[in-house]
Amino acid sequence: MVQIKPLLLSLTLAQVASFVSAAASTTNGQDYWQSFKSNINPLNVTLPKITQTVSINPTQECTYYDPDTALFNIDPTEWPSIWEVATTNGMNTSAEFTALYNSIDWTKAPNIPVRTLTSSGSLDFTGYDANTDPDCWWSSSVCTVPKIADVNPDIYYCPEPETWGLTYDDGPNCSHNAFYDYLEEQKLTASMFYIGSNVVDWPYGAMRGVKDGHHIASHTWSHPMVTTLTNQEVLAEFYYTQKAIKLITGLTPRYWRPPYGDVDDRVRWIASQLGLTAIIWNLDTDDWAAGVTTTVAAVEESYTDFITMGKNGTFANSGNIVLTHEINNETMSLALQNLPAIRQNYQHVINVATCQNITYPYFENTVSFQSFSEYLGLNTTSSASSSASSSASSVASSIPISAASGSSPSSGVASKVSSLSSTSSSTSGAVKLSPAYIGLALVAVAGLLI
Ligand SMILES: *[C@@H]1O[C@H](CO)[C@@H](O)[C@H](O)[C@H]1NC(C)=O
Ligand SMILES: *[C@@H]1O[C@H](CO)[C@@H](O)[C@H](O)[C@H]1NC(C)=O
Ligand SMILES: *[C@@H]1O[C@H](CO)[C@@H](O)[C@H](O)[C@H]1NC(C)=O
Ligand SMILES: *[C@@H]1O[C@H](CO)[C@@H](O)[C@H](O)[C@H]1NC(C)=O
Ligand SMILES: *[C@@H]1O[C@H](CO)[C@@H](O)[C@H](O)[C@H]1NC(C)=O
Ligand SMILES: *[C@@H]1O[C@H](CO)[C@@H](O)[C@H](O)[C@H]1NC(C)=O
Ligand SMILES: *[C@@H]1O[C@H](CO)[C@@H](O)[C@H](O)[C@H]1NC(C)=O
Ligand SMILES: [Zn+2]
């Protein structure tokens, strides 16, 4: 039996309440996106039929192409360097960026230090008190509820029972055609967290994401640990990714995911200036590490555990958001292998916009997403509607699992550390097992019992 500490419960309830306002409101003066240009109509995306868009041979798909200049013109001198911090190539001195930077009242920015990396490349937590966690630094504590006002709180789970929040990071990957074909055939839509550098490199891949009805969100320009960047660098990572996604898809996201989950209240505050809200996760497959820093079998085992949880009571009262990746053939193959069983064991396998009733996940209100009940209405299966009617009370009475671990495609360190175990724990539910970020493990309150 798990004893739930009152503070944890109240934080959880506060977060549930704040989801509603975060999804519904915009912060002041966020009209920067209106000056972005695009020729793409997101309601009528037509992909040029070239080998790269129709083949399912990874080598053919990943052959570079020059996009049709009638769709968009990507002049490298007008963008940050690919896979480098977005202030590169003079982008921190462009007129548009300078105007944006100066439009923000930085005197209101929280006075939180820029983090540093250790010599081994992991976050340096020296001197940071994970117990009091003054900056709501997820990497240290899995904190998702900001400690300061006027900042969008993170989303990290789907509230409906037996719901798998489907998310794929690090795309668009050039070799994703077989994977996207499968999702399309199965009528599955996911939240896709695109890296700005990949969007510019593989624009038709990003167009396909919108064409297929996926929920597109930002995953920064160059995939850094964002808390290690200066305010200017953080702003540039967000801004140029927004601009790239708009140019190529006609849409500007309202949601983003921090690489490695690395976010604190300084980064949240800057994101909030651009109207961006973070979406984290509460289950991590570590799929990026399969065959890289861990075995494929270990990742298969995580998938199997998470699939089991769909039916064994773990998600009887609320659902999950699962961290998985579009990053390469291995992770997409794992997705294809496991999706049939995921769908068997979970009532709902849906994108995060729909599971959170975020009907407008973009600044452009021309594209809307189904709310959860709209999604249920279209799905005439009878068992689905009964879970909807019970949902309101179940949200308030559940403690979402918050097991998490870092994922780092670029890190040499790895350990499969997501763990769910019954324990009474500290307020944050976190127990740090290793000083290294990648070794960070969180033992969560797994009881769904009050
Ligand atoms: C959709 O796009 C195609 C190709 O760009 C165009 O021929 C067609 O007229 C468009 N349809 C609508 C309804 O805008
Ligand atoms: C722009 O960024 C570069 C690093 O990429 C830095 O050296 C320079 O000082 C920055 N310029 C301004 C105006 O902030
Ligand atoms: C459900 O399955 C998971 C994964 O195998 C396991 O860790 C957890 O303890 C199970 N929960 C219950 C209530 O049986
Ligand atoms: C995309 O996937 C291919 C095939 O697995 C892989 O070789 C490539 O490195 C990936 N590209 C990126 C940018 O992650
Ligand atoms: C992975 O690559 C193989 C060939 O190298 C290909 O047949 C298969 O379709 C790819 N899987 C995915 C999910 O793209
Ligand atoms: C979504 O809407 C349904 C129906 O109004 C409601 O029961 C549920 O609590 C909402 N979920 C969220 C996350 O707001
Ligand atoms: C419709 O609901 C059933 C069970 O409630 C579920 O198995 C199925 O996957 C749902 N369909 C879609 C398209 O999500
Ligand atoms: Zn990532």
List the helices and strands and how they pair.
Layout lengths: L5 H19 L26 H4 L3 H4 L33 H9 L34 H4 L21 E9 L5 H9 L5 E4 L1 H6 L1 H9 L3 E4 L12 H19 L5 E2 L8 H9 L3 E2 L4 E2 L11 H14 L10 E6 L3 H17 L2 E3 L1 H4 L16 H7 L3 H8 L1 H6 L22 E3 L21 E3 L5
Parallel strand pairs: 1-2, 1-7, 1-8, 2-3, 4-5, 6-7, 9-10
Helix pairs in contact: 9-10, 11-12
The site of one 2-acetamido-2-deoxy-beta-D-glucopyranose (NAG) has 9 residues, from helix 6 and helix 12.
InterPro entries: Glyco_hydro/deAcase_b/a-brl (IPR011330), NODB_dom (IPR002509), Polysacc_deacetylase_ArnD (IPR050248)
Pfam families: Polysacc_deac_1
Keywords: Signal
Would you kindly provide a written description of the structure presented here, covering whatever features stand out?
The chain is α/β, with parallel strands linked by helices. The protein has a domain at 10-34 and 109-385: TIM Barrel. Helices cover 33% and strands 8% of the residues. The protein has 16 helices and 10 strands. Strand 6 (283-284), helix 11 and strand 7 (320-325) form a beta-alpha-beta unit. The longest helix is centred in the first third of the chain and has 19 residues, at 6-24. It starts with 5 loop residues before the first helix and ends in a 5-residue tail after the last strand. The structure holds 2-acetamido-2-deoxy-beta-D-glucopyranose (7 copies) and zinc ion (ZN). One 2-acetamido-2-deoxy-beta-D-glucopyranose binds at residues 87-88, 92-93, 232.
